[in-house]
Amino acid sequence: MGCCSSKVAKSPSYEDPTVLAAETPFSLSDVEALHELFKKVSNSIIQDGLIHKEEFQLALFKDRNTRNLFADRIFDLFDLKRNGVIEFGGFVRSLGVFHPNAPIEDKIRFAFRLHDLRHTGCIEREELKEMLSAILHESDLILSDDVIETIVDKTFNDADTKGDGKIDQDEWKEFVLKHPSLMKNMTLPYLKDITLAFPSFIEKSEIEDLET
Question: Whole domain around residue 160: which residue ranges?
Answer without folding.
Answer: 104-186
